[in-house]
Amino acid sequence: MLRIVLLFLALGWNPVAGAAEMGDDGLHKEDWFSITFRDVAEDIVAAKGEGKRLVIIFEQRGCIYCREMHEKLLADPEVRDFIKANFKVVQYNMFGDEEVTDLDGEMLTEKTAARKWGYVFTPTIVFLPEEAPQHVSVRDAAVATMPGAFGKWTFLNMFRWVHEKGYQKDEHFQTYHARVIQEMRAAGRLDAE
């Protein structure tokens, strides 16, 4: 068995290929996450220019739920590919000191932005509008927020709901999610969450 594994490794096969790397800040780094100057208005405009929506993900060093999100959810091709195709993702460190410019123009650090916007759980995923509003904070502009860790279908369906602009419709996310799960079961496409 060891010879087979060594042979695969010698041939360049990596069983964790595509797995997120650990950054110097202790956060998992996806190679498809966007590195920006963290000016939220500029990031919304840039995302729209790419035909995407801006998402901010707050994480912290040692967060077991963040690790699970990277190792299970974002490593799942169905989840990863949908998010990559439709969203520009920018990672924030819940306790980081990188400079952030809020939509209202206030200059903050990542950690003061988390406090101002009221985010206390990691991961927290913040979905921003298609257009950058002025004179409001990210907390007030967000079209949806997903605090904490969830299973694959809740996680993916939240991204789908935002992509489909469910927040503008009468169908609440929980109703949408239940309907999608029921449709998947009826079609025999639901695997274990």
From TrEMBL:
Key words, A-Z: Signal
Show where the Thioredoxin-like fold domain sits.
47-131
The answer, when asked if Signal is one of the entry's keywords, is yes
- A Pfam family cross-referenced in the UniProt record is Thioredoxin_2
Q: Does this UniProt record's set of keywords contain Signal? A: yes
The record ties this protein, via SUPFAM superfamilies, to: Thioredoxin-like
* Signal peptide start-end: 1-19
Q: Say which domain of life the source belongs to.
A: Bacteria
**The protein, known as:** Thioredoxin-related protein
**What is the native source organism of this protein?**
Mesorhizobium tianshanense
Upper taxonomic classification of the species?
Answer: Bacteria, Pseudomonadati, Pseudomonadota, Alphaproteobacteria, Hyphomicrobiales
